[in-house]
Each structure stands twice: as structure tokens, then as C-alpha cells.
Amino acid sequence: MSEEKEEIILFMTTISSSLEVKKRCQKIVTVMCSVRDKYTLIEKDISVDGGIKAMRETLKDPKALVPQLYSEKLGALGDYTLFENAVEDDKLLEFLRKEYEMPGSG
Description:
Shape: globular
Helix content: 25-40%
Strand order of the largest sheet: 2-1-3-4
Radius of gyration: 14 Å
């Protein structure tokens, strides 16, 4: 019997004029493929009408910018900087369980 995969939502955009934002979104998608046996990544494009407002309400952060990761079970997981640091520290699974803190942030 297989365990049910946890859903992780990636708030992202497909119409950003920023190449950096596009690269960050793509890196998250690529890295998340390494844990696809435990997690399902759901991409939510905030470029639709009301998308940015809905993302910020969901995250409870009126200034949040894409990309952001969110878990229905745990709430906001973090932005790209926190994600990237967790990956560099080899702590992706801790990040996805909301157990990762960036060194020097606590």
C-alpha cells in the first residue's frame, strides 16, 4: 500500500518580464522532481485576474512575491531564498516539513 503524496503549491507566474523570476520558478520545478515520490508539485499561475491577491491572502503576507511554496497542511513554506538555502544545505525535506531555518536567522 503506497503512502498518499503531500501536495506542495508553487505560486509562480508565466508572464513575468524578469528572466530571474522565470529561472527561479524553473529551478524549483526541477529540484522538486527529486522528491516526486513523496510530494506532488502543483503550479499555480498568479498572472490570472486576482492571482497575486489570492496568493498573498493564502500566505497571509501582503508583500509576498513569486515564487512561493505553500502546503495546505503546514501553511507557507517559504520563498525562493529559503528554498535555495535549504537545497544548498541538503535540507530540502526539512524545508518541505517546515523544519528548516536558515543559518543565522534564529
